Amino acid sequence: MAIIQCPVCHQRISSLAKVCQHCGAGLGEMTPEKRRQMAAYRHKRQSELAKKVSLVALAVTFAGALTWWFEAGTGWQWPPSTTAVTLLAVGLGLYLVGRGWLLWLHLTRSTVKRLL
Ligand SMILES: [Zn+2]
């Protein structure tokens, strides 16, 4: 079983549902192939979003490193400013979220393939 999007209301529903629990749209006429395509499409969209989050996180981390380097004059002086620490912390945190999300998608992908 996988979580797919209802084609009518776009809420999250089970791929095995015959009727959408949110809007009542009948899904029984959907072929297993169509359900598989919808699950694959949703998975691809989420993977792309997770990669974008990771990229933005790297840019923020890089901005934090540059801020730390340039604001004190010469190189990385200790302690870094609050701005640099904030940018680095947010960037690294966001990066971990993005990579964790990708890992989770990768792990659930094999489950989706097995169960569909
Ligand atoms: Zn629906």
Q: Secondary-structure map with pairings?
A:
Elements: E1 3-5, E2 12-14, H1 32-71, H2 82-115
Antiparallel strand pairs: 1-2
The structure holds zinc ion (ZN).
Zinc ion binds next to loops.
**Largest sheet geometry:** 2 strands, antiparallel
Q: What is the strand content?
A: 5-15%
Bound compounds: zinc ion
Neighbour order of strands in the largest sheet: 1-2
Number of domains: 2
Average pLDDT, all residues? 87
**Rg, please?**
21 Å
Q: Which stretches of 5+ consecutive residues score pLDDT under 50?
A: none
**Helix amount:** 55-70%
Structural class by secondary-structure content: mainly alpha
Describe the structure.
- This protein has helices spanning 32-71, 82-115; strands at 3-5, 12-14.
- The protein is mainly alpha-helical.
- The protein folds into 2 domains: 1-30, no CATH class; 42-115.
- It has a two-stranded antiparallel sheet.
- It starts with a strand and ends with a helix.
- The mean pLDDT is 87.
- It binds zinc ion (ZN).
- Residues 6, 8-9, 11, 20, 22-23, 25 line the site of zinc ion (ZN).
Q: What tags apply to this protein structure?
A:
116 residues; mainly alpha; 2 domains; two-stranded antiparallel ribbon; 2 helices; 2 strands; elongated; binds zinc ion
